[in-house]
């Protein structure tokens, strides 16, 4: 899907690009290589990922700028860091949602049900509540709702019941403890293709990092960061995320801010899924910023100024 994504971004020499989910820098590097005089601002809320990737992209010199921020506050972080040219400045912005393999492979981040680690799950480890803390605090009902809403987990009630029962004796602090508890709560693997704890881990990660809230907020702002004719490409891996992207882009299109470049999401082919299992549920949507939207913004600003 990388090629499709780059095609939608319609890279131009000298363009300014915004990678709101820098991660390991795979997309950022391709953009900087294919548009030789372009510059790119790379955002990630995970400070250690950002530092490692910034070091790898250091060879691009001033063409690359790293910004530590949750993507929905990238504008504020840019202003605080003195990064010039943010609002209305970008020819392209991209969001590649979820976590990177760097994060998944680091057992101590607590994101993998296959590796023993503390149940942290925060992408930015300097703020917020860990998954272990969340599991110790929420009610059985809240937990079941969360697992169903963010993980599409149909056995959410059984899992929530088992967790609440277990924490009466001892808190769940480790990833493998949680994976084991979920497996027992749902009655083993039953020949399922995915591990029974997959959905529980995904749901907890999304809750701990407020991923749905962050996505709604960034989608409400990103048009104002793009120049007229600027492109937006969003790659999601979860039906709940794709629904939000679809609704938000449709609303922005109805308001004249965006032209939709994808009516239906682009999905990976069988060959790609075979080579990269993470691509299994990937959906790509893209849009083009309309100049008319910019006029709409000006009108709104004037109205605000006029009280
Ligand atoms: C799937 S990875 C991106 C991989 C990247 N496109 C590449 O080619 O290597 C998602 C990245 O987005 C970051 N991320 C997730 N939610 C974020 C948020 N709300 N704000 C900023 N970064 C976020 C994660 O820390 C992770 O590094």
Descriptive notes:
With 307 residues, the protein is an alpha/beta fold. The chain folds into 2 domains: 2-100 and 211-305, 3-Layer(aba) Sandwich (Rossmann fold); 125-208, DNA polymerase, domain 1 (Orthogonal Bundle), CATH 1.10.150.170. 47% of the residues lie in helices and 14% in strands. The protein contains 14 helices and 7 strands. It has helices at residues 2-9, 26-34, 47-56, 74-81, 101-105, 131-137, 140-151, 156-167, 175-185, 198-208, 211-225, 239-254, 270-275, 291-305, and strands spanning 16-19, 39-44, 64-68, 90-96, 226-236, 258-260, 283-289. It has a 7-stranded mixed β-sheet with strand order 3-2-1-4-5-7-6, sandwiched between helices. Helix 3 links the parallel strand 2 (39-44) and strand 3 (64-68). The longest helix is centred in the last third of the chain and has 16 residues, at 239-254. The radius of gyration is 20 Å and the shape is globular. It starts with a helix and ends with a helix. The mean pLDDT is 91. S-adenosylmethionine is lined by residues 21, 23-27, 43-46, 49, 70-71, 96, 98-100, 123, 214. S-adenosylmethionine (SAM) binds next to helix 2 and strand 2.
């Amino acid at each position: 899907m990388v090629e499709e994504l780059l095609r939608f971004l319609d890279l131009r020499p000298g363009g300014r690009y915004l990678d709101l989910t820098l991660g390991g820098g795979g997309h950022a590097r391709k953009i900087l290589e294919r548009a030789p005089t372009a510059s790119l601002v790379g955002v990630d809320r995970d400070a250690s990922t950002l530092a490692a990737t910034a070091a790898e992209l250091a060879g691009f010199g001033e063409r690359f700028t790293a910004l530590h921020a949750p993507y929905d506050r990238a504008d504020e972080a840019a202003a605080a860091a003195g990064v010039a040219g943010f609002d209305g400045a970008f020819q392209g912005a991209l969001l590649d949602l979820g976590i990177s393999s760097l994060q998944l492979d680091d057992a101590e981040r607590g994101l993998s049900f296959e590796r023993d680690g503390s149940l942290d799950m925060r992408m930015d480890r300097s703020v917020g509540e860990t998954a272990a803390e969340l599991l110790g605090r929420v009610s059985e009902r809240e937990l079941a709702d969360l697992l169903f809403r963010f993980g599409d987990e149909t056995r959410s009630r059984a899992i929530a019941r088992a967790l609440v029962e277990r924490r009466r004796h001892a808190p769940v602090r480790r990833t493998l403890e949680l994976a084991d508890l979920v497996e027992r709560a749902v009655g083993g693997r039953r020949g399922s293709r995915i591990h029974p704890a997959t959905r529980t881990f995904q749901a907890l990660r999304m809750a701990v990092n407020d991923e749905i809230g962050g996505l709604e907020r960034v989608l409400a702002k990103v048009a104002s960061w793009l120049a007229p004719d600027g492109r937006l490409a969003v790659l999601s891996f979860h039906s709940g995320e794709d629904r939000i992207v679809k609704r938000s882009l449709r609303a922005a299109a109805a308001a004249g801010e965006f032209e939709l470049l994808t009516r239906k999401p682009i999905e990976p082919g069988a060959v790609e899924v075979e080579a990269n299992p993470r691509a299994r549920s990937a959906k790509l949507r893209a849009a083009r910023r309309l100049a008319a939207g910019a006029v709409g913004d000006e009108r709104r600003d004037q109205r605000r100024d006029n009280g």
